[in-house]
Specification:
Layout lengths: L2 H11 L1 H12 L7 H8 L7 E3 L2 H4 L5 H11 L5 E3 L3 E3 L3 E4 L3 E5 L9
Parallel strand pairs: 1-2
Antiparallel strand pairs: 3-4, 4-5
Amino acid sequence: MCLEQCVRFEEQKGMEYLYTAVTKMLRLTNDDNLIVNRILEHTPKDAVVFLTGVGKVFPFIRSHNVMNNLHQVLDCVPVVMFYPGTWDGQSLRLFGTITDGNYYRAFPLIV
């Protein structure tokens, strides 16, 4: 689907409908989350996972959701998320303005 078709689809159906469709398609709230499973399938034991592009997929994929799901199944591999925002010690703020939920295991690599 090209970008113009996606924009028309959003205009016709609304953002909430599009968000629900993406969430269901990627199984983001299920145990068989496609994003988490893809990362697991391609991550050896001695790896470091780098997550990028979280600002590009907002609001369809929430970074705290991916991190919480990854933490449950990928506990021995470090995960580094390049996040376009701020971390105040309790919650992520996308672009410094949009609160993206609590993620208490996160910490900044560069202060």
